[in-house]
Amino acid sequence: MSFNSFGHIFRITTWGESHGPALGVVIDGCPPGIPLEAAEIQTALDKRKPGTSKFVTQRKEPDMVKILSGVFEDDRIKKEFGGPVTTGAPISLEIENVDQRSKDYTDIRDKYRPGHADYTYDAKYGLRDYRGGGRSSARETAARVAAGVVAEKALAQVLDSTVTIRACMVQMGADKIDRAAFDWSEIENNPFWCPDSAAAKRWESQLDAARKAGSSMGAVIEVVASGVPAGLGAPVYGKLDAELASAMMSINAAKGVEIGAGFEAAALSGENNADEIRMQNGKPHFLSNKAGGILGGISSGQDIVLRLAIKPTSSILTPRKTITRDGQETDIQTKGRHDPCVGIRGVPVANAMMALVLADHALLHRGQCG
Fold first, then answer.
1. What is the pTM of this model?
2. What is the 3-state secondary structure (H, E, C) of the chain?
3. pLDDT tens digit string along 24-64?
């Protein structure tokens, strides 16, 4: 299986399956001298791990991370940095699987789940790991979240400045947040990473009803990166927005990406869509941000604003029509433990993918422009 790696200079390769003994990531191209401890990575993993509320899968995985390589500490380093630092060598991170229930998938070993990659995996490889989807499972994204922590730390070192990356859910099903009530401080106060407390309350009852009915709901995730300097990205084939779209579309269940005004830009006039510029404190100041912080594939210095559409979880209890591996028509009912809205745990994953792209492009920019 090819294409398990992502990035150019700051490059990750993830490995492992949903029901294997472990999964993990190898990070290549990380600069040396960056303080890094497992506890920092664990904080991010705890936001993505299953079993944290009734609104996510009840699979009980502690998602404890181990740093296997690429980090070193001795007396001098501890005195200078306060703890272990990256060496510039590949960083290998491992997360054990401890709560697999493969028997839940025995009944569907020869059936294709509608909405899943079962049929396409079989069509491509001639076989598939039916236990939780194997390599196609969203379990793989735990490795991305772990790598995203390293990427954020590398980004700060390369740019010698602070870039703040935040993600939230701004829509569940057809129910959108009230933009006038948007408050980043609210996202830690509810199980949906929602910046609107009233919307979060509505979503509780809506998703609970869907969960009890054996159904699922989709979502829209918004990711915002503040403090990104102008100049990251490259024209034509290295556009920052194109790389971000590719990163986000690689997330399980992603079905659409928009940046800035996105699809709404098609309904705007040229006058309304143009982000006018003035000078403020000796620097360019944009009067709006329809472009989402990227112009011509290059960051403008404004907030980078991206939204990601996540489809409803395909694993549902409601029987659906399908076929078997040998072409027989049948029905299927997916058992096991599944997210009624996979967008919830997709929030920290989208956050991580933003960090990975920005870290990579910061290193590319330094390599070309010094």
1. 0.93
2. CCCCEECCCCEEEEEECCCCCEEEEEEECCCCCCECCHHHHHHHHHHHCCCCCCCCCCCCCCCCEEEEECEECCHHHHHHHCCCEECCCCEEEEEECCCCCHHHHHHHCCECCCCCCHHHHHHHHCCCCCCCCHHHCHHHHHHHHHHHHHHHHHHHHHHCCCCEEEEEEEEECCEECCHHHCCHHHHHHCCCCCCCHHHHHHHHHHHHHHHHCCCCCCEEEEEEEECCCCCCCCCCCCCHHHHHHHHHHCCCCEEEEEECCHHHHHHCCHHHHCCCEEEECCEEEECCCCCCCEECCEECCCCEEEEEEECCCCCCCCCEEEEECCCCEEEECCCCCCCCCCHHHHHHHHHHHHHHHHHHHHHHHHHHHC
3. 999 999 999 999 999 999 999 998 876 666 777 666 678 89
